[in-house]
Amino acid sequence: MNLRRGKGIGGSLPHRVAGALTGLLLLALTVAPAQATLLPEGFFDMTPAPGHGPAAVEANTMAYNGSDDSVAAEGAVVMHYQGYDLRADKVEYDQASGGVKASGHVTVRDPQGNIYQADSIVLTGGMKEAFIDSLTLTTSSGARITAHSVDYKNGLETVLSEASYSPCGLCIDSKGRKIGWKVKSAKITYDRNHASVYLQQPSLELLGIPVAWIPWFWIPDPSQPRALGPRMPGVGFSSTLGATLTTPYFVPVGDNIDVMLTPELMSKQGALLGGKVSWRLPGYGEIDIKASGLYQLDPSAFAGTVGDRRWRGAIQTSGAFTPLDHWTAGWSYSTFTDQQYLTDYGYSDADSYTNRVYGTYLSEMTYFDIRAEQGQQLGNYASNDPAQAVTLPQTSFEHIQNLAPGYGRLHVTGELDSIWRGADQTATYNGVPYVTGYEGTKQHLMVEGGWENQYIVPGGATVTPYLAGRLDVANYDRNIGAIGGIYPTASDAFLFSVTPIAAMDVRFPMVAKNGFDTHLLEPVAQLVYRGSNTTDVGITNDDAQSFVFDTTNLFSYNKFSGIDRQDTGLRANLGGHYLANFADGSWLDLIAGESFHLLGTNAFGIADAAQTGVDTGLGTDASYFVASARGGFSNGVSASSKVQLDPNTFKITRAGVGAAYSPGNGFSTNTSYIYVAADPKLGTTTDQHEIEAGVNVPIADYWSLQGDYTYNLGAGGWTNADAGITYDDGYLVLGAGANFKPTSWGVGLKFNLKGPDGKAAY
What we know:
3 helices, lipopolysaccharide transport protein A fold, elongated, mainly beta
């Protein structure tokens, strides 16, 4: 055996020392609230396998004892092996038993920069067992794990005595103050077979202060996300539910089924039982089923709403699949006792829900989607409203085909909508009737095919011609007759139209640079012709009801939002774009322009039953003037604004402005203002003025106050207010907040333990 200083010792001692690292690494797992947040990815797979070559060993003395067949390296022992460094006062190797002992100021540094310190490390049982005396593990991310002793048994069980974990090392900031959190336990047992961690007398310290102690606790192995056991509880308070406590519990079923039980106790409403089942289909997708329900102890908390009942609940299902390349498919379906249940119990903050079945194909140049959908209004509404639309089916198609270089490209789009309602969907606002859906069945097929190419002409202008044709075929069967004489007027209606389309887009980009700043000024002129007098191409307007004229659609060839309405005649869109980027990081983006209807029927001058087209700003030959501005500045200020102006009266019809300030010292504030002028034709008799403001104010190191307030000047009252206080030192987050509305209020608590990477620890 070669015992020369600085050479290998047969390759056996170092790999066994490296084997001991496996036990050390498992220690981190036993006390880490979440392995992925504490240690580098693949941390537990970094231990080198035996027999991968000799190690470099240095020591003051190295000796072989033939009587007991042992090797000893003593005095400033240094070992290097495949990125691992071990330092100790003494390392002994018993070749007969295979035992290894490193003692005296033992330090191991692994390839990831994690450092293990111990008084001694003893490996026995053919390297399957280890005992470590006085361990301190400092991870490369700064987390610290300590234990008075560690007993690692055959890779199946690891026992730590007097152990602790902290994500922030000593958890003392630069001013000597305690921060973060620490978990201590008299004994921690990690059972690999059962993927469980058992803690005896665990305690939690916040900011160095013990705040919780229990005699015994059990958690699933944090490295095993599917381990059986509880998950982080949640607490809250609201005026309708009272104080709430949610205690999630995870149950794995086989290899691919997960069950998450979420019972919730509420001081006012009793016990809400909820759960979710997730069934994974490897290589294909996943199915989720959620169910919840309760017997309300105090239904009167929801008096005057559909939630004023004893039994409430919901079943929600969904599936998502990737059956073939480029294809996705799935469904979502929910049923509930009342339309307000999901909102009242925090399962949804939306105002509507859609049941759907769908299939989608997406490639680089092609998109295809087919789906059936049923809309459900959430809130204080009757269940199973027959006026809610059902689509059977809705199909969309788009394909782009590039031609030979210099010849442009072809663009084909298509859509087929089949819509059924069991009743008319109507409303009246201040005497103005709205018909947003008709009882009966409607089919609408639209196909548009076009060609475009871009040319750069002398002088630098870009010219993009577009030639296309559009086909619309629609059928409507009402069976009962029309509402109030509004179309359709017959029991059956059929429409067929062909629309020629021609457009020309001309832009002249001008760029100026001074070595530091860049300025782009781009005048834009468009001429668009749509040769049809049929503006209501869908017979009834089901998907083109939402429209606001602003800079986002100023340069659109068809400004309507859906296929049931289309712009017609000859229209010119004129405007410009200015973009500036400054050397200090500031920037400014401006868009402004106006649209002019020149010939033919102006579709925006014709209102439909949903009042689409009324006072949009496009109904006259010269539209409203629209402009927008956005900017960001190096001092932390950002701002944006939009305006819609009637050029004949110089009256502002719509406007919005917002600003934010965040200098980078923890302070931030934002404010916004929205204005919409009253319009009796649309049933709005007063101007809308809404102001919203929010602020975050640091009041001390790690502490800040938050507030948000919304006030409707037009209605003469506030609509929402939030206030809260938060402590956040990067590892521990504590907070309390309250939300106030004119008819309700709620209080919530915030408590988060973070790992060294800033993610939730457990």
